[in-house]
Predict the structure.
Amino acid sequence: MDVTMTVNGVESTRDVEARTLLVHHLRENLDLRAANVGCDTSSCGACTVLLDGEAVKSCTVLAAQAAGSEVTTVEGLAAADGTMHPVQAAFRAEHGLQCGFCTPGMVMATVSLLRDNPSPTERQVREGLEGNLCRCTGYHNIVRAALAAAETQKPVSA
Amino acid sequence: MSILGTRVVRTEDPKFLTTGGTYTDDLVEPALVGALHLTLVRSPAAHGRIVSVDVSDALAAPGVVAVVTAADLTELAPIPSGLPMFNPEMLRPWLASEVVRFVGEPIAAVLTEQRYQGEDAAELVAVDIESLPAVISLSDAASDTTVLFPAAGTNTVCTFGEPTPADFFDGCEVVVTQDTVNQRVAPVPLETRAASAVWGEDGRVTLWCSNQGAQQVKAQVSGWLGIDPETVHVKTPDVGGGFGAKIGADPEFALVAWLARHTGRAVRWAESRSENLTGLVHGRGQDQKVTIGGSRDGKVTAYALEILQDAGAYPRSGAVLPTLTMLMAPGVYAIDAVHASARSVVTNATSTAAYRGAGRPEATAAIERAMDVFAAEIGMDATEVRRINLLAPFDAPHANGTGATYDSGNYVGALDTLLAGADYAALRSEQAARRDREDVRQLGIGVSVYVEITGAAPSGTGEEAQVEVHADGTATVLTGTSPHGQGHGTAWAMLASDRLGIPMDKITVIHGDTDLVPSGGGTMASRSLQQGGAAVHQAAGELVELARKRAAEVLEANPDDIVVDAAFGGLKVAGTDVGVTYADLAAEDALLVRTTFTANAPTFPFGAHLAVVEVDTGTGKAVLQRVVTVDDAGRVLNPLLAEGQRHGGIAQGAAQALFEEVLYDADGNPLTSTLADYPIPSAAELPSFELLDMATETPMNPLGAKGIGESGTVGSTPAIQSAVIDAVSHLGVRHIDMPTTPEKVWLALQAAAGTAAREGAHA
Ligand code: FES
Ligand code: FES
């Protein structure tokens, strides 16, 4: 079946099997390989992308279900001139990644978290990222990165 | 000012953050376009005789190119066990044909044009298995009632050391024995195993795989396939975590290479998480009996450790890891008599092998638990018992009595720094207050002091490095170490930059390609910095010497007067403006050094951890509130990276203490085969960690560095387990096995209450 969606601002139509998962569609049909597959039970969050602005695990969504939607992956997060999004920059500054496998999903989950709650507490960050597993960092620096990004994103009050 | 010792953010990160890394399953190499997908049919039974394997329906399924079973692989000899002390009858076949020995053991290989077709076709392979009794518990395995390899005649893979002498504790005023379980845990690298292979027209195979050391894979795969090592080109692209489980080739890698040759097509394989949880190696898996004796005033004089090690179905490195546990048995303590022995047995579960710490966390867990039970027995504060028995600070090598020679250590210093930093006294008074008011939520405080051995594996030999400065003034570093999150790209560039005076952004670090880096030990056993990093330091130093000599000739000066001038980008005659750039020197003739650094001996990082937990005595649930650690890994190259390693290790140690355990039912069916069942912690279950610094340099390498990769798991696990037990110790609980789940804590509380009630009734 033909599926059309806009990914990182670019519209594309591909003929896919009805059962194709969004994550496989992104990775194999659109060659956007940042979203990773880390599990088979929607438990790890390595595949997290934004679907019409909401963080979803792209292994639990069929490509066909995303038809007509806007999808954002970590490849589409930086500004056109390459400037990293504040969340990406904070992950780097705070050493919020090691092997990097959870990172695209973790960054997208953090972007979504901060959109819903621009000034979270540490506890809120920890609970907000509960669906994204990282085996390397112990989360310490990921949490710091999320809090730091929240600070930079805050509108400067006059 | 030297860049060494400063918090340099990682040069690797922009790629991971903006486009994602390139892991094995991400590769879009031209050679892999149109590759076949491998799907393995794995055993659904833990132990059974294979009656038949019918592949006819699978062969007829859409997209299927081939279905391979053991009958097609007769040209391959069984996978060698690799270690002479193993029972030689316990060999693993490439694909099972007669007997299956664990759920997840590969039986058939299905090759399809597309990924999803493989899963469909694999379901059509009809395997008829007649079940045999499964052996899961270590005591069952040791009893030999059911023998997994009849030709071996026993389930014992190998034994180490003699039984504890009967009179070993004679003369001790107090002797306490505790059985402890260091449970089987799953490493769970977030990237599962993956491999791709293609044979070129030159008769060579390129094998990409997710692994901690390309060179070891090359040696093993070529050996297993019976081909010249030079025929095999291994590349490890970005690797999404390893934690020891990705050391050495897995049989699946060789199978991928063989299938690529067999079909004449490129083949790619990426396992599912369920396959990963059942088929990748697991870690730990020791039943331990600890016995500790001493005097009522707190002096420990004798300690014995008896280990029963779960090797899993086919012996791999897990079967020998007890030797490391034995080597480190006395830990940080001065104990007159220490005895350790071990026996490894096969069970119907996936093989055990290295997992972050590999044998050392088990040693620390044992001795630290022993110290706690000893303290409880004599009614003394557990930190006080430790202080009484700690080795005094030393900077000359110290033999530990079980075969290890510690390089340098200050264990008392670590404990003091920890207790002051965490405000131990305040924690104890908070605990006392809660006990007084019989709070439902009790506070537990656990402390461990540890020493571990790093850097020796796999062979104790050296590590090579090559540094080359190019005519454009940039430099390339080749290393045999193989990062999978450790940040060698940044760290090795720092080391080279420090000596060469070339800025880091002009230095490229290359690893994980056996054509470019033919030799290397890989990244494991926290060896990378102290071996591979030291080699880069040495190579860069030798390159500077070479450059000085050549500069002296060009500048017609005395080599002793030539100095590196970073701002100038080359070398100058000291105190003058006369110089020559690296670029000019390299344009003349290659500016390249290849060298080997050989560490004479391993190093022994150490530290002390304190954990605070809150235990709900109504439900048994323990919540980790604080972890404070002192981890002394000698001189630190980049504190940012070292802290990251500590954080990750602490989290994995906490996970073993509180949550994780691979479980099988009595028939050997895995109960933890998905991430929905196997509870690796998320951010919500862990606190932020409080790190205190200490740096006792080692004389074993010019950097003064010890390993840091595993300290977190070694130190945190016993501290956290101890904290949970401490929270309920005043209620009569002396021991709870890991993981200290709510159920286990609650049962221990019930048992203690029952004992108290009975004792009350008898009084
Ligand atoms: S791959 Fe989607 S949640 Fe794990
Ligand atoms: S950085 Fe490796 S899993 Fe998160």
The pocket of FE2/S2 (inorganic) cluster (ligand 1) is lined by residues A 37-39, 42-47, 57, 59 (CB under 6 Å). Chain B has a mean pLDDT of 95. Chain B touches chain A through 57 residues (CB under 8 Å).
